[in-house]
Automatic annotation (TrEMBL):
It holds the Pfam family ABC_tran. It comes from Lactiplantibacillus argentoratensis. This is ABC transporter ATP-binding protein. PANTHER family: ABC TRANSPORTER ATP-BINDING PROTEIN MG467-RELATED (PTHR42798:SF2), LIPOPROTEIN-RELEASING SYSTEM ATP-BINDING PROTEIN LOLD (PTHR42798). Belongs to the ABC transporter superfamily. Residues 4-231 form the ABC transporter domain.
């Protein structure tokens, strides 16, 4: 059985008379430890899908099996536990706590998880040992994003969800950050889902899911993902 199985997931939003279908009959499977890129234009429904996988939202209908459990059936308390224990998030704008140091930001995440990784080892994993005592404002964008990755990975999550993780970074820094995500994921055997509208990033995925107009357009398996150093965008 695949690690993630999304089966005909639909998410509708109702606003008075108006109904928006953000995800329509979405189905795909993901193997454990895979790096998956979800690609699609603005408004295609990527964030909606990521929110569902991350337990921040539930589909209106359909099943979302993660490690054999249907999270679409979870009540809000179960979703909170799922988010806390099973999911690491990396956002476009880092979302670090400004008055905590890099180490303290990572500690904050590890403290709420049962099976957390060692904080200093995790900072070393993202190459930030020397910046551990700095506050976010003292760090570059790329360094802040690496703290955010460390914070997500420190929870030892089943799933690492990244929403446009390079969206606020320049070209070279963006590449370095993707490399950190890829290396951290492979070393920790974490399943990674990266949402982006940048089709160049798709080449690094073990799997690429293209979404358009709320639906899955194609699912591609990549036996030989392109090494990041060779990807240009
Ligand atoms: N809470 C909501 N209420 C109503 N409509 C929503 C809500 N969230 C998303 N939508 C609509 O669902 C559709 C898909 O939105 P979504 O944010 O998932 O797309 P996206 O692919 O992530 O876009 P972007 O790349 O611009 O973030 C859009 O038409 C959006 O307006």
């Amino acid at each position: 059985m695949a690690y993630i199985e999304v089966q005909q997931a639909t998410r509708q939003f109702k606003n008075g008379e108006q109904v928006t279908v953000a995800n329509r009959d979405i189905s795909f499977e993901v193997d454990q430890g895979a790096v998956v890129v979800i690609l699609g234009p603005s408004g295609a429904g990527k964030s909606t899908l990521l929110n569902i996988l991350g337990g921040m939202d539930s589909p209106t209908s359909g099943r979302v099996l993660v490690d054999g459990v249907d999270i679409a059936q979870f009540n809000s308390r179960q979703l909170t536990t799922y988010r806390r224990q099973a999911v690491g998030f990396v956002f476009q704008f880092y979302n670090l706590v400004p008055n905590l140091t890099a180490r303290e930001n990572v500690e904050l995440a590890s403290q709420i998880t049962k099976d957390a990784r060692d904080v200093d080892e995790t900072l070393a994993l993202v190459g930030l040992t020397h910046r551990a005592d700095n506050f976010p404002a003292q760090l570059s964008g790329g360094e802040q994003q690496r703290v955010a990755i460390a914070r997500a990975v420190a929870k030892n999550p089943k799933l690492l969800l990244c929403d446009e993780p390079t969206g606020a970074l320049d070209y070279q820094t963006g590449k370095q950050v993707l490399q950190v995500i890829q290396d951290a994921a492979k070393q920790t055997q974490t399943t990674v889902i990266i949402v982006t509208h940048n089709s160049a990033i798709a080449q690094l995925g073990d799997q690429v899911i293209r979404i358009n107009d709320a639906q899955v357009q194609s699912v591609e398996h990549n036996a030989h993902p392109t090494p990041l150093a060779e990807i240009e965008w």
